Amino acid sequence: xxxxxxxxxxxxxxxxxxxxxxxxxxxxxxxxxxxxxxxxxxxxxxxxxxxxxxxxxxxxxxxxxxxxxxxxxxxxxxxxxxxxxxxxxxxxxxxxxxxxxxxxxxxxxxxxxxxxxxxxxxxxxxxxxxxxxxxxxxxxxxxxxxxxxxxxxxxxxxxxxxxxx
Length: 165
Description:
21% helix; alpha+beta; 8 strands; single chain; 165 residues
């Protein structure tokens, strides 16, 4: 009996170290597009838009976007446009139903030293993940990871950038 107990006592610290390392690794890992795959891709015609009171102001841009093919999360059309100098806003159109959802915030004030291919809103057709880089509604500054699930933007992770004084 004491042999089993002594082996368990020696084994327990190793298990705790492995668990702590796995937990830390999961917390520091940056979400990837491949982590949020979509099950389907829609190739049909876009349904007529279901405009809301708020979205009517942008109906021309939304109608232009609805003429394009899905580009986000399998069957959505994500459209963005400027809302001021260095500011972006937008909507997600469900190509199957025509239902429109606003992005959860505007995004602005991204770093000046970004590469030529930088997009403040990054997304893929084959993924539910969307990445925002900059300041949400002109507050804070960082990289914000959301998944688009059940017509909602669900926060996954945020990495705030330190303020520069």
